Amino acid sequence: MCLAIPAQIVALLPDAMATVDLGGVRKDISVVLVDGLAVGDYVILHTGFALSRLDPEEALRTLELFAEMGTLAEAQRELAGP
Amino acid sequence: MKFVDEFRDHALAKTLAAKIRAEVRPETRYHVMEFCGGHTHAIFRYGIQDLLPANVRLIHGPGCPVCVLPVGRIDDAVALARDHGVILCTYGDMLRVPGSKRVSLLKAKAEGADVRMVYSSLDALKIARDNPDRQVVFFAIGFETTTPPTAVALQQARAADLKNFTVFCNHVLTPSAIANILESPEVRRLGTLPLDGFVGPAHVSAVIGSRPYEFFAEEYERPVVIAGFEPLDVMQAVLMLVRQLNEGRAEVENEYSRVVTREGNIKAQALVAEVFELRRTFEWRGLGLVPYSALAIKEAFAAWDAERRFAVPARSVPDNKACECGAILRGLKTPRDCKVFGTACTPENPLGSCMVSSEGACAAYYTYGRFRDAG
């Protein structure tokens, strides 16, 4: 039910609709719930509606947090020696 | 897929697991309830519990909308399709949930009722436009994620003055269910539900924001970390909860900042407020009658309310006696404690609602974790 997925807007259509790309599959969805969307934006798609915007910068920040942790763990292992 | 695959990275999952192991205090108990079916699904699919130390337990809460809908409402939907001759449209998961005498919507369909699966509320609206001589009922279920799309359908139906479209509204509210779990007399009486923190919903929070959970953090002194549905999101949320509990903090933190803000989707909230109002009480499977926990259609949209048009009775039907869905949804029992789990009740032939949706605890246990706790 709640398994919404990220989708990228490839075209804006009349009547608050848009075409999105889902990893190669195209689909028309309603964007009536999210204002100010542009082609290239990512949204969270759920039951045919864009529920919210997905912020790529925030996504990168979260990923960087994980990556830093990885580097940190590696550095700690190296410091601890064999 | 972008923004999905990156959050499933194996190496990073191992790092996060190591980090959690390093920070967990052996003498401390970390019992964390994930509220969303999406999290339950991810936890089982990726074997997240196996990556965690034994004193970090994940308890699966009532976050699957299909699982919490009581039998009486399913019977009502079956009656609408069978006795009123309507075209009954609903989401796929709902079709297989058995009502009384194991009659599901799918069975009613096999017996001749016009039941149709839709992907979106707008599909139901289209069916109504394409069938002007038939009554079309959209059997609307779900938490705050599916509510705004139902509101849009109701507004469009009113704008077009569509006379043959109504909504059978069963939308429920997440915060009331969490409050009920924390306050429920059964839980207090049995005293067997040790909950130290919550993994907060992902897409529900995209709509309502993280703010509604601040009440739980403050009032019940339980930390809440809102998390995305990918495995790294869930593990990071566990780490953040472990840290809060170690430090004696109880705050709302947001791991899913790429989608969730404190305010949520204000446009969607306004739309929902325009179309729906609170029900004084609503029955939940497993939780019983929960005050102010569900939505009804407002008077201004009465002409599109299936409950009014077809005089749907408010019936309450007890669950099958053998079924432990109620205790499982409350986190008091696990699917393994249920006598019919994996025998009379399987995903192919479900007896209880938790076995139907892939987000239900029993279906997830059956599919991915059936033998894990066997010892």
What are the salient characteristics of this protein?
heterodimer, A: 82 residues, alpha+beta, 5-stranded antiparallel β-sheet, 30% helix, B: 375 residues, alpha/beta, 4-stranded parallel β-sheet, 16 helices, 38% helix, 15% strand
Summarize the structure in words.
The complex is a heterodimer of chains A (82) and B (375). Chain A is built from one helix and five strands, in the order E-E-E-E-E-H. Chain A has one helix spanning 56-80, and strands at 5-13, 17-22, 25-30, 42-46, 49-54. In chain A, strands 3-2-1-4-5 form a five-stranded antiparallel sheet. Chain A is elongated, with a radius of gyration of 18 Å. The termini of chain A are far apart. Chain B contains 16 helices and 13 strands. Chain B has helices at 10-23, 37-45, 65-68, 71-83, 105-110, 121-130, 147-159, 174-183, 185-190, 203-208, 214-219, 231-246, 266-275, 306-309, 325-329, 361-369, and strands spanning 30-34, 56-60, 87-90, 114-117, 136-142, 165-171, 197-200, 224-226, 252-254, 276-278, 281-284, 288-291, 295-297. In chain B, the strands form four sheets. A five-stranded parallel sheet of chain B has the order 2-1-7-8-9. Chain B has a four-stranded parallel sheet with strand order 4-3-5-6, sandwiched between helices. A two-stranded antiparallel sheet of chain B has the order 10-13. The longest helix of chain B is centred in the middle third of the chain and has 16 residues, at 231-246. The model of chain B has no long low-confidence stretch (mean pLDDT 91). Chains A and B meet through strand 1, strand 4, strand 5 and helix 1 of A and helix 1, helix 2, helix 6, helix 7 and helix 10 of B.
